[in-house]
Amino acid sequence: MTQPGGRDTGGNSPIVATATQAGQPAIVATGGPVSGNAIVATGTGSGSAIVATGGTTGPAIIANGTTANAPLRLAAQAAPNGTNAIGDLYADSSGILWICTAAGAPGTFTKVGTQT
Fold first, then answer.
1. Of 3, 20, 57, 103, which is the most buried if we count CB atoms within 10 A?
2. Strands of the 89-91 sheet, one edge to the other
């Protein structure tokens, strides 16, 4: 059930959206005029905050930033946690980007490129 202000108070899937026309997005979100976020999602327990699946020829997510903001930001953490799949990305507390190359808990991560 959605409450005033767009907050959902329960249910297994608070928002479920399906595009009804080919080539059209299921959700379009625009942030506030100066510093608002378009989407803020937090998973709890073992749940995922966002699960996105692309169409036959379309990507799952398209993110466009502005000249002042990156389109995608990974919040740094001390170490990968939970069960990870090949291709999962992780940014460490130094800002180094890692990619999972062997699935597991936490999996095997390899540094991306020649970062210092």
1. 103
2. 89-91, 97-102, 108-111
Q: How would you classify residue 26: left for phi > 0, otherwise alpha for psi between -120 and 50, otherwise beta?
A: alpha
Distance (Å, rounded) from C-alpha 113 to C-alpha 79? Answer: 19
Q: Within 13 Å of residue 44, how many CA atoms lie on the same side as its CB?
A: 3
Q: How far apart are the first and last CA of the chain?
A: 47
Q: Per-residue pLDDT tens, the chain, 116 aa: give them.
A: 444 455 555 555 666 777 777 777 777 777 766 667 777 777 777 667 777 777 777 777 777 777 667 777 777 777 888 888 899 898 888 888 999 999 999 899 999 988 87
Structure tokens at 45: 């327990």
Q: Where are the domains of the chain?
A: 1-71, 74-116
Residue 79 has φ and ψ, to the nearest 5°, of -160, 155
